[in-house]
Design a protein that fits this description.
single chain; 360 residues; alpha/beta; Metallo-beta-lactamase, Chain A; 8-stranded mixed beta sheet; 4-stranded mixed beta sheet; 13 helices; 27% helix; globular; MBL fold metallo-hydrolase; Competence_DNA_uptake
Length: 360
């Protein structure tokens, strides 16, 4: 997890020490790209660059990227659903409409200008679970496979009116659909002490209905038996629908070695049923908590209450109020978990970086 502020910028690496392969997911806020550029420029074998969806905390870092005179890195393939893919999902057309000024959204134009292969694994050029190619895992060089879990065509289509309205405004996106109008509303959970895990886990669940989050590209990456579920900001119900047959095939729960929790730990993107659908004891959450007070205590509580006996581990790439409350010896003793934060780093630009090794 790289320093994406309240967003995501993820780097997945696999292979042998003599030949490593890489996958980049999202670029966080605008300052993220400046912080991580030198690290990305030096990478070879970038097999896939995924822009999961158009929320500013995932895509704003692409603005300085596409302003570069030349591509700063060379992904072998790019997955990203822009306006043409939304329209193609509506019609299920294999030919994309031409880019006009109104549809010249910056990342899409940058992909074209850089000559990057765009959604080439899909004949329709739509990254969707409804594309025929997504019915089986997709193989990447170095032995990694990807099983797509989200988005669905219907969720891509639902974004069209939102996209069209925003394309009339200046800039890439001037809105953030996750914004809370009232930062002091009940959406935020003030704490005077340690979280009450059992009561929080049983609190009512109100699902995320934001259309951009519904278009999130979420997937399982697997290498030599290790599975990582990168959930972007996907809706819990969409993930559950995709995971349920996989869980049934494995006896009721689907093994995941690491879950990058959806929507930075929002309680609206992980239902009370979701933790019982996967067999997972490692959970990664990317956020500095600056805008939405993520992760929600109810979200962490759902994972703890669903599996209280086994040892678990939570990885937070920022130490902040909403993650600090879980660094409690009393809570760890009762609920059998550990927490990991980044170590102090003299390079302050890279604060928010945490490396997780599934083979150590």
């Amino acid at each position: 997890m790289l320093p994406a502020k309240d967003g995501d910028c993820l780097l997945l690496t696999w292979g042998r020490s003599t030949e490593l392969h890489h996958l980049i997911v999202d670029l966080g806020r605008e300052g993220t790209y400046r912080a991580v550029k030198d690290r990305l420029v030096g990478l070879s074998n970038i097999e896939l660059f995924v822009m999961s969806h158009i929320d500013a905390d995932h895509i704003a870092g692409a603005v300085p990227l596409v302003k570069e005179a030349a591509a700063p890195f060379a992904p072998a393939r790019v997955w990203y659903n822009a306006r043409p893919q939304l329209q193609a999902a509506h019609h299920r057309q294999s030919v994309l409409e031409a880019f006009g000024a109104r549809q010249g959204e910056k990342l899409a134009r940058g992909i074209v200008n850089f000559g990057w292969p765009w959604n080439a694994e899909f004949a329709s050029e739509i990254v969707s679970v409804d594309s025929p190619e997504a019915q089986e895992p997709i193989s990447l060089p170095g032995g990694l496979t990807i099983r797509l879990l989200s988005p669905r065509d219907e969720d891509l289509v639902a974004l069209i009116p939102v996209w069209d309205g925003e394309l009339e405004k200046e800039g890439l996106r001037s809105f953030d659909p996750d914004r809370d109008d009232d930062p002091l509303s009940d959406e935020f959970e003030p704490f005077g002490g340690a979280p009450e895990v059992e009561s929080l886990a049983e609190a009512s669940y109100q699902r995320d209905k934001t259309k951009p989050n519904g278009t999130s590209i979420a997937f399982i990456a697997e290498f030599e038996g290790k599975r990582v579920l990168l959930a972007a900001d996907a809706h819990s119900e969409v993930l559950e629908a995709a995971l349920r047959p996989l869980a049934e095939a494995e006896g009721g729960t689907y093994r995941v070695d690491l879950l990058k929790v959806s929507h930075h730990g929002s309680k609206a993107n992980t239902s009370k049923d979701f933790p019982r659908l996967i067999d997972c004891i490692r959970f990664a959450i990317s956020t500095d908590g600056s805008r939405h007070h993520h992760p929600d205590a109810a979200l962490i509580s759902r994972f703890l209450a669903a599996d209280p006996a086994r040892p678990k581990k939570f990885y937070f790439n920022y130490r902040q109020d909403s993650t600090d409350i879980w660094d409690s010896a009393a809570l760890r003793g009762v609920w059998n978990y550990e927490v990991e934060y980044p170590s102090d780093d003299e390079d302050h630009a890279m604060n928010g970086t945490l490396t997780i090794d599934l083979f150590s």
